[in-house]
Design goal:
mainly beta; Beta-galactosidase, Chain A, domain 5; calcium; GH-type_carb-bd
Length: 259
């Protein structure tokens, strides 16, 4: 377990996963073991969304890739690259065509193994600054590799009537619960505010959209995404790809307490 601290802020990282963000003793992150979700943060890569209706196949230029919901990155282990008192960088490296064990099999999937026909390196950097927590994702790999990226943090809710504010609109907890597993889509948006007992601003660069998901009233997943997968049929999921046209693409998330 890695701990970073700066003034009144402390985060804890477990094998690359953000498991705690305390500011003046207030916990902002959903705690493992609490109702709602077994994790506290994750990345969705190289695809976002379900693939069960297409027998877990996703169409790419090199044929069909075998991908379960939200991709295979979460099945890989992070290794630490660098750390000090206020920052830590982790990476995952994947060799093209490597077969990876699917943790969803057999309970939630018929595929025991997953595969992606492109090699890549994925870096995740945490950095505490005076005004909040900054998380940077760097994607590098084979030129023209197709991919989608989503960040999937879960925030602990402390009040009965939290509100998400985006583009001047208010979204209630009830609205998110009603949408269910499809997740509530916030299109063309780079910043949202979670108004709870204590509020947060989640700002992004490079993603472009958000989706909101929760099955319980005690947490809220506020997920920056490059593509909302339920806009298309699963067979057309490839339409959401962007392509690696440089040595590296960078995506940023800032989690900033605002009261």
């Amino acid at each position: 377990m890695k701990e970073l601290s700066l003034n009144n802020q402390t985060i804890k990282i477990d094998a690359g996963e953000l498991v705690s963000y305390l500011v003046d003793g207030h916990q902002y992150i959903h705690q493992k073991g609490s109702p709602g979700w077994r994790s506290s943060d994750a990345e969705m890569f190289p695809i976002i969304g379900p693939t069960n209706e297409t027998d877990f196949m996703v169409q790419v230029s090199r044929g069909n890739a075998i991908q379960d919901q939200h991709g295979l990155l979460r099945e890989l282990e992070y290794e630490i690259v660098f750390d000090n008192e206020v920052s830590a960088t982790y990476k995952k490296v994947y060799k093209a065509g490597t077969v990876v064990k699917n943790s969803k099999f057999p309970e939630k999937s018929t595929k025991s193994m997953l595969m992606w026909p492109f090699g890549f390196e994925f870096q995740k950097k945490y950095e505490l600054k005076e005004d909040g927590l900054y998380i940077t994702f760097d994607v590098s790999g084979e030129r023209d590799m197709p991919f989608m990226l989503g960040y999937h943090p879960a925030f602990k809710l402390h009040s009965e009537s939290p509100i998400i504010v985006s583009n001047g609109n208010e979204i209630t907890l009830g609205e998110v619960l009603e949408v269910g597993d499809r997740a509530f889509h916030i299109a063309e948006c780079e910043s949202v505010i979670l108004k709870d007992e204590k509020s947060l601003q989640i700002s992004t660069q490079g993603f472009g959209h958000f989706m909101l998901w929760t099955p319980v009233p005690t947490m809220m997943c506020i997920e920056p995404i490059t593509f909302y997968p339920y806009e298309v049929a699963q067979r057309d999921l490839y339409k959401g790809f962007q392509y690696l046209d440089t040595d590296k693409k960078e995506f940023k998330v800032c989690i900033k307490p605002i009261n």
